[in-house]
Amino acid sequence: MDHREAGGLPALRTRALCKHFGALQVTRSVDFALPVGARHALIGPNGAGKTTFLNLLTGTLPASGGSIELQGEDVTRRRPDERVKRGLVRTFQVTSLFPELTPLESVTLAACERLGLTRRWHRRTGAYTAAVDEAQEILRRLRIAGVGGQPTRTLPYGQQRILEVAVALALEPRVLLLDEPAAGIPAGESAELFEVIAELPEDISLLFIEHDMHLVFRFASRITVLVAGGVMAEGTPDDIAGNPDVRTVYLGSAEHA
Ligand SMILES: Nc1ncnc2c1ncn2[C@@H]1O[C@H](COP(=O)(O)OP(=O)(O)OP(=O)(O)O)[C@@H](O)[C@H]1O
């Protein structure tokens, strides 16, 4: 995997990022860098603080301390929508998809939102046509163009999860955050979802939380292990599989190497 850094900067970086809820320290001084083009997995036991870390990145939760930089720009105090405009996007949960809309309509809406068309309804129709074309291209790339005209509620759960990624892509992410993209999908389909994700252009840097270690070790270029809110280890899949501390605390006796 290519770990280019545009202008020498990682796509995303945190320095001494902290979060506490009252006396409960949930994110402990996390220094993290996501190189451009990375397919980076965040793993750790239940309650390790993985989702909290993602929520701090998106701005859903304010940080208690430390900083977050997007391609060198400090976004720690930016609102979530301002971070999205700068290319920091997370997938929307299936529960936030509109069940009656078709995938084509949902992805077109997201493209219109990015292009500012939802606030300027009198714009010429050519702009909308471009948004529809863009949505169709995204659905093709994610292999769900064939169901692009069906109500979302009629799609199998796995395809709804792919639609989450499609909606996120319409926002033109530079960094895409995926919180357990394969959760709830039958094993056979989850590998297919990850194959689709792995084919995304390399200028989109990926950070994903995943509990299925087979998927992690198959698709991640690097892995960060979070334990009790702090980084226990970071490295290539081989580094992590061979790390005795990680094996003891997290991987147990399972063979992943
Ligand atoms: N809003 C909140 N208020 C208080 N405590 C919280 C809040 N959100 C999360 N926590 C606590 O922070 C800790 C980390 O939770 P988090 O959901 O980030 O872990 P996780 O690694 O994503 O877990 P899982 O793998 O089970 O999804 C947990 O102890 C959780 O109870």
From TrEMBL:
GO terms for molecular function: ATP binding; ATP hydrolysis activity. GO terms for cellular component: plasma membrane. SUPFAM superfamilies: P-loop containing nucleoside triphosphate hydrolases (SSF52540). The keyword Nucleotide-binding applies. Keywords: ATP-binding, Cell membrane, Membrane, Nucleotide-binding, Transport. It holds the Pfam family ABC_tran. Residues 12-253 form the ABC transporter domain. InterPro entries: AAA+_ATPase, ABC_AA/LPS_Transport, ABC_transporter-like_ATP-bd, BCA_ABC_TP_C, P-loop_NTPase. It comes from the Bacteria. PANTHER family: ABC TRANSPORTER ATP-BINDING PROTEIN, CONSERVED COMPONENT OF ABC TRANSPORTER FOR NATURAL AMINO ACIDS-RELATED. This is ABC transporter ATP-binding protein.
